[in-house]
Specification:
213 residues, alpha+beta, six-stranded antiparallel beta sheet, 15% helix, disordered N terminus
Length: 213
């Protein structure tokens, strides 16, 4: 298949689940966590990347955040918060799941969710929607390859060699025939870490205002 880099052919998006509703007030209602493990759940990826050990209703525990174009959100958006010891005096937030969108894919936007624990380490990253080339760029999907799992456990300071592909002087593996796609995902995951680092206090505040029901 050929495409001009300046004007990539328009492709139908590949949705790995029903598109996530990340606008404030449009997210999952309490109780949907029980159904999130099903293949067709729109929030399956959120539970897959969330920090382990949470005992709250993850999908119902959302925080409304202001628009942030560097995260790909020109309007307010929601993040999901993972808590432990919910309802007790020891309750605390152990991490968050942030949605991020990059427009740097070979064929346009790539949407992801990134789980980050309270120490700033990635607990998982998943692509939720993309337009990339079948057989090449679609290796960013976990059903196609384990490529995206190389971010697990990483943080702003790890890898020490920098957040870039090996071909760009960093430490992350690329994707054969899909360098633009791989570079876009690396950048998006890194941006989620940067956002967490800047807004850590608000994201981890147990009494922070939740999104409107």
């Amino acid at each position: 298949m050929s495409a001009t880099r300046g004007k990539p052919a328009r492709r139908r998006p590949v949705r790995l689940a029903i598109p996530l509703l990340v606008l404030c007030g449009l997210g999952a209602s309490p109780g949907q966590a029980e159904d999130a493990a099903t293949l067709d759940s729109p929030y399956r990826e959120v539970t897959e990347v969330a920090p382990p050990g949470y005992d709250n209703d993850l999908l119902g525990d959302t925080l409304c955040l202001p628009a942030e174009r560097r995260m790909g959100h020109p309007t307010p958006f929601e993040a999901w918060r993972a808590r432990t010891a919910t309802g007790s005096d020891e309750e605390r937030i152990i991490g968050v799941v942030l949605p991020v969108v990059t427009g740097r894919g070979y064929h346009g936007d790539i949407s992801l969710v990134v789980g980050i624990d309270a120490e700033g380490a990635i607990t998982g990253a998943r692509v939720t929607e993309h337009h990339e080339t079948p057989g090449l760029g679609d290796a960013i999907e976990t059903r196609r390859s384990g490529w995206i799992r190389q971010f697990d456990g990483r943080s702003l300071d790890d890898p020490a060699g920098g957040w870039a592909l090996q071909g760009d002087g960093g430490e992350f593996d690329g994707l054969s025939g899909a360098t633009v796609t791989a570079r876009a995902v690396v950048s998006a995951v890194h941006q989620a870490l940067c956002y967490f680092d800047v807004h850590r206090e608000r994201l981890l505040a147990p009494d922070a205002e939740r999104a409107a029901p």
